[in-house]
Amino acid sequence: MKVILTGATGFIGSEVLRFALLHPAITAIVVLSRRNLPLKHPKLTIIIQTDFLDYSDATLGACAGAEACIWSLGVARSLSAENNRRINLDYTMVAAETFTRELAPQLPEGKNFRFVYLSGMMTERNQERKLWFMSETRRIRGEVENKLMDLQKEDRERLVTYVARPGGVLATNSLFPGSLEPLARAITVDDLAVKMLDTAINGHKTQIIEVDVLRDEGKILKKELFKEKR
Length: 230
What we know:
Blueprint: E1 2-6, H1 11-22, E2 28-33, E3 44-48, H2 57-63, E4 68-71, H3 81-102, E5 113-118, H4 135-154, E6 159-165, E7 168-170, H5 181-184, E8 186-188, H6 189-202, E9 208-210, H7 211-226
Parallel strand pairs: 1-2, 1-4, 2-3, 4-5, 5-6, 6-9, 7-8
Helix pairs in contact: 1-6, 3-4, 6-7
């Protein structure tokens, strides 16, 4: 299976990439990145994407045959509201619309393109609700979720969207006790990465995947596929 990945230089995206290169079901992964990665692998193609609002024919050609995209590109805070909206909302929606229009029709009949969006816990989809903290980020993520769901409704035959909502994301070897992760609504980055990959490959029974499901299923998948324990 061929998968597209963004945000591969970040904390979460880099872990998704690490497991994608190990995953037996992933045969090719195309990373769209503003800068090159110091990494070479037979499965890996790196495309330098300087403008995430415009996809060239060459870029789309490199992505041809992809069945899913894991979108882990975004910022929690930005210098301006305009920049925040451009990166978190506009970049995401232009990609989802472009891949649905250009890549999904290339898939075999009966297959739809999976778009896995990295959101966050306490995302607010009700744009009128008053919020007391992190209001801008929570609202923008909620707006993205709404628009992705609307896009799927417009083209159910070609697109299915999934939303991962982790809480606090911990380093793989964090000293935080694993037994306390459910209480803290936390998840280790490796568990999150493995579950996001599995969603891109196999889908999920619900479109919104909350932190407890991400963590619990991620741990199981990690042990089954990669023999890693934590």
